[in-house]
Amino acid sequence: MTLDAQIQARVGGFELELEMTVASGELVALLGPNGAGKTSVLRVLAGLTPLNAGQVTLDGVVLEDPAAGVRVAAEQRPIGMVFQDYLLFPHLSVLENVAFGLRSRRTPRAMALELASQWLERVGLGAYAHRKPSSLSGGEAQRVALARALATSPALLLMDEPMAALDASTRVELRRELRHQLEAFEGVRLIVTHDPVEAMAMADRLVILEQGKVLQSGSPAEVAERPRSRYVADLVGVNLFRGRAHDNVIVLDGGGSLTVAEGTDGNVFAVVHPRTVALYRSRPDGTPRNVWEGRASNLDLQGDRVRVRLEGSPPIVAEVTPAAVRDLGLDRGDTVWIGVKATEINVYPS
């Protein structure tokens, strides 16, 4: 089973223009900055926003093709959708919420309720069948919304930031559970998220959108190794520079230069992992090929590491241990020397 989508659509004054193919068994995460068009893509696929041009095909069946005059109504598409706010009906019981999609497809009431009950058992909420949604926690509501979407046996499952409404402690547990539930789903799976940890932990492939277009696509490892925008670099937590290379020197667009291990020519990206950036109180002697002075503008403790944002030419982020911060006596506003080995810089064409 495969989703093939060539999308050209106008959403207000915003233009979506992208192509996407997703196979069953693959979990694809759509990421991008606010306003990139992530939710709009889901709305187009679900039939809630019409195409201006292009085509959406699911398992060989054309769901929409403006040129051919084909547009299957949203309620007739074999699609399940989990909305960001879950959109559970407050006046219906949990069981009736899960049965709603089945009933809308004219499944007899008794059969719909039986199937809904089975799905509630599968997501661990069988005892909650007769409760109202207002009595549920955020994690419980998310599982009800997922059960409702899956109960109709959709060919395509769309999830719009399904964990956005959860607190941080609940999200870790529910992420594992959601991944477990999705592994048993045989259809095509597409999730929108703004959380890079969520995307990296769950997705087989990332599709990065910016301004309604696909900027980059690949496995989490591929995207992390070769980011193609500042947004993606921030997403995976690395420093990204762009410039023009000649032999072993890259003159950076934002000022400054980097010396690299292998010579190349032309426009390139250069990636430096923050953990490879060394900090010194005085100018170092010896090994680093790249040494410059900078000022610490921010220190951010993240787990067992401290991310130090440094102003300079070029600006860069270093990641060091709390012990290193203490040994350096480092604080915001302090001036330090920055060192990066030429062998620690990953260079590729821009």
Attribute tags:
OB fold (Dihydrolipoamide Acetyltransferase, E2P); alpha+beta; elongated; Rossmann fold; five-stranded antiparallel beta sheet; six-stranded mixed beta sheet; 350 residues; 2 domains
Question: Helices, strands, pairings?
Answer:
Blueprint: E1 2-11, E2 14-23, E3 27-31, H1 38-46, E4 53-58, E5 61-65, E6 70-71, E7 79-82, H2 94-104, H3 109-122, H4 138-151, E8 156-160, H5 168-183, E9 188-192, H6 196-202, E10 205-210, E11 213-218, H7 220-225, H8 230-236, E12 239-252, E13 257-272, E14 278-280, E15 290-302, E16 305-312, E17 316-320, H9 322-328, E18 335-340, E19 345-349
Parallel strand pairs: 3-9, 3-10, 7-8, 8-9
Antiparallel strand pairs: 1-2, 1-4, 4-5, 5-6, 10-11, 12-13, 13-19, 14-18, 15-16, 15-18, 16-17
Structure overview:
- This protein is an alpha+beta fold.
- The chain folds into two domains: 2-235, P-loop containing nucleotide triphosphate hydrolases (Rossmann fold), CATH 3.40.50.300; 249-349, RNA polymerase II/Efflux pump adaptor protein, barrel-sandwich hybrid domain (OB fold (Dihydrolipoamide Acetyltransferase, E2P), Beta Barrel).
- Helices cover 26% and strands 38% of the residues.
- The chain is built from nine helices and 19 strands.
- The protein has helices at 38-46, 94-104, 109-122, 138-151, 168-183, 196-202, 220-225, 230-236, 322-328; strands spanning 2-11, 14-23, 27-31, 53-58, 61-65, 70-71, 79-82, 156-160, 188-192, 205-210, 213-218, 239-252, 257-272, 278-280, 290-302, 305-312, 316-320, 335-340, 345-349.
- A hairpin with a 2-residue loop joins strand 15 (290-302) and strand 16.
- Helix 2 (94-104) runs parallel beside helix 4 (138-151).
- The longest helix has 16 residues, at 168-183.
